[in-house]
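Chapter summary example.
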Amino acid sequence: MSLPEFSLQGSPFGIDTLLGDPFPADDRFRLFAAHVRPLLVKARPAMEAAYRPGNGRPGIEPVLVLGVSLLQFME
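The structure predicted for these 75 residues follows.
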């Protein structure tokens, strides 16, 4: 599985759009987005060894997989 392209560009359904005024500043998802996700993005180069370029279709973004796994564990 090859490593997908990674972009830090936000989407209309991104954290900044979804976490507006209804959520308090100490909301766990807001804290996750502010503190944990940047650490996952920094760790992405270390995860590249698990992917092989040009080997099939792109896999799921490892930052996304790790983030979802951590959020599931928190639940």
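To summarize the output: The longest helix spans residues 28-47.
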